[in-house]
Amino acid sequence: MIAVDIVKRFPGFTLDVRWGAADLVTGLFGPSGAGKTLTLDCLAGLVRPDRGRIVVGGRVLFDAETGIDVPPRARRLGYVFQGYALFPHLTTAENIAFGLHGRPRVERARRTSEVVARLGLGGLERRRPHELSGGQRQRVALGRALAIEPALVLLDEPLSALDAPLRRTLREDLARVLGDWGTAAVVVTHDFTEAYRLADQIVVYDAGRVVQAAPRDELLWQPASESVATIMGIRNVLRGTVVKATADRIQLHWRGQTLEAVNSPTRAYLPPADSPIAFFIRPEYVRLIRKDRGPADPQHHMNLMSGAIVGEEDFGTTWSLRIRLDEPGPPAQGGHDLEVEVPHLVYEILEIARDRRWEFSIHRGSIHVLPA
Amino acid sequence: MPDLFPVWLSIRVSLAATALTLVLGVPVAWVLARRRFPGRDFLASLVVTPLVLPPTVLGYYLLLVIGSRGPVGRLVERLGVPLAFTWRAAVLAACLGSIPLLIKAAQAGFESVDPRLERAARTLGRSEWSIFWSVTLPLAWRSVLAGTILAFCRAFGDFGITLMVAGSIPGLTQTLPLAIYDHVQANQMGEANALAALAVATVVALLIGFGRLGRLRY
Known about the structure:
By secondary structure, chain A is α+β, with helices and mostly antiparallel strands. Chain A is built from ten helices and 21 strands.
């Protein structure tokens, strides 16, 4: 169990966060400068909070009230720094054994070779960091942190130093090691995919505060607010007005359409009629109606609307289409109302390159309301 | 053939001064590189003053401190170890003149060590003392060595400060630069030539030795 409740003031920035986590992998996600790394530094004891309390696995590491402030060397938390911070003058084996200083020589050697073997670093024991690849360095950094049998591993942007193809491989590698080792971990990242892939629970940071803490799937489908959705980089975050809200359905008005959405299953949100409401529609969940199967039937096609493609971008495996609805008035997102994503195959079969006018349908379960 | 005593004395004095400079200068350099405290800027300026003040001024102040009426001088005299006008004073003089060179070089070396490495060592259970010996110094030792060589050269060549506090007593405190000066004054050009050549040879030999050290891999 991890419980963090801290305040740290700087000129022009205040970190004021409170969150708790089970002994799993917790992701701290948010834009740069939101205070994620600062939180790790406070956990590790490298920065002293002004107020608050930090408890890891039942052990109080910091408590401003009682004056407890365990020094970093006694906290037994493994810290994997951004860029890894491996000791350049030491070999792989010496880096891994660094935290075992003071233990009997035999135990140190046994523990080091165990870590080397478990992380697949065999044969690299005598290499120095500059003789290792990015992926090997990451594993040495992990090994160095795990060798001390930490109560918790802290990882600061573990993949940011790598280029895109390697990033993906190492993300899976890291997910496997964390799962395999079973040590509780806190991973800082500004990339939502990374947070989602590595963490069981995600804490969303913004400007020194926690804006949401939730299991990863809950966060994916139910961001707590419009600002959380924006931080997550969700597209088609839109604003309409409420027509009618019940425990399981919300009707809303947007760009001349009356849309029907499913209410949040975990927190029924009942805004009064005519109040503003934010919602989002994932671009890959907007359906294009095929013209070769007869006219669209409002009975079968929920939330039916029509419009024209006013722009498109090729992302290699998918096309992103910008749609402007056939409604008077300014479009909802600058030049367009909706972004729609279709796989290349669909783009070719439907001959979208030629045909620019379409009807669209969105299932009510794919319109996600964002509580104010 | 000139008396070779000044050569041996100079080597002994400058080696002793270099050792003292290391012991005193390395901690100061580390503090300047790694700690923020009130008075840090003052300390940083103070340590370079020996580079800019005339040697006679430095020697004068040093003499006030270690002379028989000075605070340190009185204390050590009571212990039966006179300082002023002994070879010990020559060591202090050489140390005072050379310590800024070591401090500046070592400070730059310590500052070039990524502080994240020291933070990492802290989370891995090491004390500050252990971190200095296992991380900071192994990564900065080349700068420390370069500073040590400069300090040694400066110590070997000191004239003004040594003259002020140790005098130029032949067979006692007359170091090589002072002996050369005396020979020239006495128009003994042969002796002056021989000592000057010895000075050059000694320094070159020692520098080559130090240079070998610097090529070692850590």
